[in-house]
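Friendly challenge for the regulars: who can give me the structure tokens for this chain first? No prize, just bragging rights.
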Amino acid sequence: MRYVLDTSAILSGKDIPTDNELYSSPKILDELKHGKMKRRLDFLMESGLRLISPSDKTKEEVKSAAQKTGDIARVSEADIEILSLAMELDAILLTDDYSLQNLASVLNVKYQGIAQKGITKNIKWRNRCTGCGRYWEKMHDSCPVCGSKLKTTMR
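First reply, four minutes later:
Bragging rights claimed.
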């Protein structure tokens, strides 16, 4: 079985099936530079975890899907790489990140939670002003109408 690990899978502290093919993106190194989690990452690499960068084409496909679902403001470059890698390898994505699970579902990528149950339905996000209540498709630093903070909400 092939698995792609995101940062939440490594941070969970749960057992990861090291007797399978394990992959991740080099971008997770930036997220796991220090302390116990760095040691856990080192252990996984010694157990066969391979770090691979996905193609730019696949990353653009994931970004496009994230724009459509509204997850783009909720995912990092590392998240985009991890999901892209799972797509390219036809692997199961191990993640507790609900935005990643949501995107995986939309893109027909298999995923599995580690410490959390996982999403039960697809989510589309939009941005709502905490002041005037208007909705915005794009996230702004502040509401273009009243200047209040925007908050991400489900549709």
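The domain at 2-112 is CATH 3.40.50.1010 (Rossmann fold). The chain has a mean pLDDT of 87. Your move, everyone else.
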